Amino acid sequence: MPRVDADLKLDFKDVLLRPKRSSLKSRAEVDLERTFTFRNSKQTYSGIPIIVANMDTVGTFEMAVVMTQHSMFTAIHKHYSLDDWKLFAANHPECLQHVAVSSGSGENDLEKMSSILEAVPQAGNVVTGEMVEELILSGADIIKVGVGPGSVCTTRTKTGVGYPQLSAVIECADSAHGLKGHIISDGGCTCPGDVAKAFGAGADFVMLGGMFSGHTECAGDVIERNGQKLKLFYGMSSDTAMKKHAGGVAEYRASEGKTVEVPYKGGVENTILDILGGLRSTCTYVGAAKLKELSRRATFIRVTQQQSTMFC
Ligand code: 5GP
Fold first, then answer.
1. 214 falls in which pLDDT band (50, 70, 90)?
2. Residue 99's closest CA among 70, 72, 69?
3. Catalytic: 153?
4. Which of 68, 74, 153, 189 is catalytic?
5. Which residues participate in GMP binding (predicted)?
6. How confident is the model over 75-97, as a mean pLDDT?
7. What is the CA radius of gyration of the chain?
8. β-strand 182-186 against 15-17: which pairing, if any?
């Protein structure tokens, strides 16, 4: 007989972080950088653990250049050629440590880097503790968590499969950390507060697609429609992506992504500062001097409303 799990599972929108006593005087005192040593490969990584998703429109070299200035990571999409990579590596050697775990600038290193990045999306995402444990014990260092929360994802409506992201992160982080593994919360963040909640829930890294869409550094031209400036943003399993890269949607599967036009937001710098400023404030409200301490200081309260709707 099919089983119904009646335990309550929550999304970012269902909770708020409870403020706690804090001795921090100013947001500027908060340290958002983290250094990780990975369980299996023993590689290390230092930076602010926010990752631009490896999607066609946002995971670009242009994006990586700005992200690197803030020690943030960009998962470059897999459709650049080796020549594109060589040019990028020659012009922006400083970016290489923030687009791949480690790399030199020789040809073999570049090939390796592309194949590492290509392997990342193919690992597929999980949402349960047992899958996380299995993957870590099979040699994975970082597990991507999230099925169906993405802004341009239609998996939940097309397949009925999914898991509320906040609960997925809490449960998967617990399993991963028990084995000294790490997780990425992938998808579902709509505002800086959601990014803070994902870290509070135990995510080591947070991956963002929609929040970085619509910027100058994104691929594609600015579209003008009825006096409004827009940019195209689409899911990696959308009709648009499949037509572009695989000659259309294969008959045996449904497209599981949307194509949307989002307002053009200018340079990504302002968005980055907004997210980092929000995160520093979160840490101050809960008394975490470092991002690393945020999940230890986090108590979530279940709410029925995020904010006043008076002027919405
Ligand atoms: P967002 O930050 O936009 O909410 O979520 C970004 C994540 O959505 C990506 O990192 C990826 O895991 C997921 N995603 C991107 N494109 C698609 C798609 O076409 N279908 C599905 N199911 N997920 C997608």
1. very high
2. 72
3. yes
4. 153
5. 186-188, 209-210, 235-237, 253-257
6. 93
7. 19
8. unpaired
Which atom of ligand 1 is found nearest the CA of 210? Answer: 3
Which among 208, 210, 212, 211 is positioned nearest to 198, based on CA atoms?
Answer: 208
211 marked as part of a ligand binding site:
no
Side-chain-facing half-sphere of 206: CA atoms under 13 Å: 31
The two tokens of residue 203 are 């995510």
Closest CA to 264 of 232, 291, 301, 235: 232
Nearest partner of 176 among 140, 149, 147, judged by Cα: 140
At 240 the three-state DSSP class reads helix
Express each pLDDT in 149-191 by its tens digit. 999 999 999 999 999 999 999 999 999 999 999 999 999 999 9
Is 0.90 surpassed by the pTM of this model?
A: yes
b vs e for 29-50, b when ≥16 Cβ sit within 10 Å of the residue's Cβ?
ebebebebebbeeeeebebbbb
Atom of ligand 1 at shortest distance to CA of 207?
10
Asked if residue 55 has its Cβ within 6 Å of ligand 1, the reply is yes
CA of 54 to the centre of ligand 1 (A): 9
Q: Nearest-CA neighbor of 57 among 262, 233, 238?
A: 233
d(CA 128, CA 184): 13
Pairing of strands 44-47, 34-37: antiparallel
